[in-house]
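$ ./design --mode recover --in tokens.txt
reading tokens...
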């Protein structure tokens, strides 16, 4: 996979289009908000944030695929979040609570982001009510998604979880290695292979 590094101006245009879907920032506020972002590139399988580290940045994904995962004491991995453009990414709970992360943030493919220091985001949230509203809505949407995922993991069969994921993200099978999708769904890799063969997509 070849990553084309964008210039910062084009990256910020993509960010503004994404933000405007939630809250429209006027030009003065947008200037403040756009000034805190910088480009960041990760190679395939880079650990961007390590467990035990503070998450100091909010990332906006421009290219590539990433995941947030947890590793148990026995070494078993659980993929908790999959991210791809256009979306925000990072260990959001650790960032907003200003605590050390319990999880890893990893690039599954070469990835391009813009990133902003959370301390700068926080200052702008205090300065501009519209930015505070944007972050509040974003966190609320993320929480809603997490709760939906908990319900799916607890009450749905493997096939139901698989079908729900495909309905939500139709192209995910082409984007993300299947072992990570299986982990994300809480399905054994061999059972996931059977689903691929048996479920009509």
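writing sequence...
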């Amino acid at each position: 996979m070849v990553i084309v590094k964008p210039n910062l101006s084009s990256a910020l245009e993509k960010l503004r289009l994404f933000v405007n879907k939630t809250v429209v920032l006027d030009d003065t506020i947008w200037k403040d908000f756009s000034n805190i972002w910088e480009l960041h590139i990760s190679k395939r399988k880079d650990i961007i944030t390590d467990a035990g580290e503070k998450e100091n940045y909010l990332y906006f994904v421009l290219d590539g695929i990433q995941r947030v995962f947890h590793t148990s004491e026995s070494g078993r991995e659980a993929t908790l979040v999959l991210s791809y453009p256009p979306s925000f990414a990072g260990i959001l709970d650790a960032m907003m609570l200003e605590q050390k992360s319990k999880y890893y943030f990893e690039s599954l493919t070469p990835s391009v982001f813009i990133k902003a220091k959370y301390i700068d985001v926080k200052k702008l949230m205090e300065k501009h009510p519209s930015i505070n509203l944007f972050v509040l809505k974003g966190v609320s949407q993320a929480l809603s998604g997490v709760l939906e995922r908990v319900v799916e993991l607890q009450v749905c069969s493997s096939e139901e979880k698989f079908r729900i994921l495909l309905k939500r993200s139709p192209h995910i099978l082409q984007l993300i290695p299947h072992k990570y999708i299986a982990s994300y769904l809480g399905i054994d890799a061999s059972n996931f292979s059977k689903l691929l063969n048996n479920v009509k997509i």
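exit 0
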